[in-house]
Amino acid sequence: MKNKDFILYVRNFIFGAEDSLVSTVGLLSGIVSAGVLQKEVIISGTVLIFVEALSMSVGSFLSERTTEEFYSSFRQKESKSIPAALIMFLSYLFFGLIPLLPYFIISGKQAFWWSILASLLALSLLGFASAKILKTNTLKNTFRMVILGGLAICLGIIVGIVIK
């Protein structure tokens, strides 16, 4: 695998994982803060994960394919859009389950807090691992990932409380 291909796949993996964690925990935190029943939280989270995994992978496929078509007029290029889309789909699907899983096994506010904790932990591990793989500053990358994810959680909670 060429270095350029590797970077494309890592980018799609990180994008899918981060977006899934942040979107899912943001949604779940918001609807729990609004007082929605746990069964509805699980249904909403599951629907979000599958729809967004497909949507993100389609977006990845279309953007990579458009780029490939543009550059193909200059040189012949092997298609990377399908593997990139599959990586996006799988990373979104897998990481989206992290904030949702506590609602399957724990009830009430404990599930809410475990969901947030698991998501922040996963974001920190993702930030650390991606920095190691890409040889960038691990502390800075981990901190940035957790802070930005935390902002989405806060926004979800605030919107849920306001709508309630």
UniProtKB/TrEMBL annotation:
GO terms for biological process: intracellular manganese ion homeostasis. GO terms for cellular component: endomembrane system. Its main location: membrane. It holds the Pfam family VIT1. InterPro entries: Ccc1_fam. It is a multi-pass membrane protein. The keyword Transferase does not apply. It comes from the Bacteria. GO terms for molecular function: manganese ion transmembrane transporter activity. The chain crosses the membrane at residues 12-36, 42-63, 84-105, 111-131, 143-163. It is found in: Endomembrane system. Signal peptide: none annotated. Keywords: Membrane, Transmembrane, Transmembrane helix. PANTHER family: FE(2+)/MN(2+) TRANSPORTER PCL1. This is VIT family protein. It comes from Candidatus Staskawiczbacteria bacterium RIFCSPLOWO2_01_FULL_38_12b.
